[in-house]
């Protein structure tokens, strides 16, 4: 039979050293009972192998490393897992009634914001009530309202963050307004104030040739590595206008490398 640690008083000490009732004795070789699970390192029994326990007792920063090392798929007892599952799906009659009433009228985001629960829980209960999947419908006015609300709340509105934080709104804005910049402009938001990247510089052929001549006159050797490190914009503009860096040098009147 698997041995269990015991305190001097003969009673089991659970997580954080708290005294409690001894867990049901598991069958021979078992690592888990209904209410407790055994740490494979220190052989103590806990309701859950917590991140604090792994870090403070065993120096393991990430629980997934413990799972991989000891081939453990679970670090919580069955009882704890059930309590968490029950808490996720527990909703009162008011919340269920609100979901039933507003399903299809409000977005899932608005429903979850009102109820204070996650979207997965809301969708699970809607499915149980036979409400089906909610496909959010967008129109230009709804998109603009969403953009203005996000701007008021201080949500980053550069395209990178928008794709991650507001994926559906971002896709709808691109669909109806053809570009994220145009959508923001229609919502009255100045694109340059929210963009992470500065506006692209304007490089004409004359400017490219003038920059090349100035660098040459300063005595700098215009090799590839130096240009990529210090003048990458000039190099890119030269290739865009003239096809190659060598052709841009010749256009600037520099015929020798």
Q: Mind explaining what this structure looks like?
A:
- The chain has 257 residues and is mainly α.
- The chain folds into four domains: 12-83, no CATH class; 91-128; 140-194, no CATH class; 205-251, no CATH class.
- It is 53% helix and 3% strand.
- It is built from 15 helices and four strands.
- Strands 1-2 form a two-stranded antiparallel sheet.
- α12 (205-217) crosses α14 (232-242), α13 (224-230) crosses α14 (232-242) and α14 (232-242) packs across α15 (245-251).
- The protein is flat.
- The N and C termini lie far apart (83 Å).
- Residues 1-28 have low confidence and may be disordered.
Key features of this structure:
257 residues; mainly alpha; 4 domains; two-stranded antiparallel ribbon; 15 helices; 4 strands; flat; disordered N terminus
DSSP E strands, number: 4
Number of domains: 4
Average predicted confidence as pLDDT: 75
Helical content (DSSP H or I, runs of 4+): 40-55%
- Output the strand order for the largest sheet: 1-2
- Number of distinct helices: 15
Beta content comes to under 5%
Ranges where pLDDT stays below 50 over 5 or more residues in a row are 1-28
- Could you state the order of secondary-structure elements as H and E? EEEEHHHHHHHHHHHHHHH
Shape: flat
Determine the N-to-C terminus distance.
83 Å
The profile of the biggest β sheet is: 2 strands, antiparallel
């Amino acid at each position: 039979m698997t041995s269990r640690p015991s305190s001097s008083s003969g009673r089991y000490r659970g997580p954080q050293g708290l005294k409690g009732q001894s867990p049901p004795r598991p069958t021979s070789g078992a690592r888990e009972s209904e209410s407790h699970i055994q740490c494979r390192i220190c052989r103590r029994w806990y309701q859950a192998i917590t991140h604090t326990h792994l870090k403070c007792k065993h120096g393991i920063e990430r629980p997934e490393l413990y799972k991989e090392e000891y081939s453990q798929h679970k670090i919580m007892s069955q009882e704890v897992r059930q309590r968490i599952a029950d808490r996720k799906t527990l909703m009162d009659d008011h919340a269920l009634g609100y979901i039933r009433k507003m399903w299809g009228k409000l977005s899932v985001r608005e429903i979850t914001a009102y109820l204070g629960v996650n979207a997965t829980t809301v969708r699970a209960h809607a499915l149980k009530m036979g409400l089906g999947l909610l496909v959010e419908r967008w129109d230009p006015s709804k998109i603009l309202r969403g953009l203005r609300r996000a701007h008021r709340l201080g949500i980053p509105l550069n395209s990178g963050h928008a794709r991650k934080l507001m994926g559906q709104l971002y896709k709808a804005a691109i669909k109806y307004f053809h570009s994220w910049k145009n959508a923001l402009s229609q919502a009255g938001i100045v694109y340059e104030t929210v963009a992470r990247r500065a506006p692209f510089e304007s490089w004409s052929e004359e400017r490219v040739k003038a920059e090349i001549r100035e660098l040459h006159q300063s005595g700098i050797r215009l090799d590839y590595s130096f240009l990529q490190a210090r003048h990458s914009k000039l190099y890119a503009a030269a290739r865009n206008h003239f096809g190659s860096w060598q052709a841009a040098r010749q256009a600037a009147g520099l015929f020798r490398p």
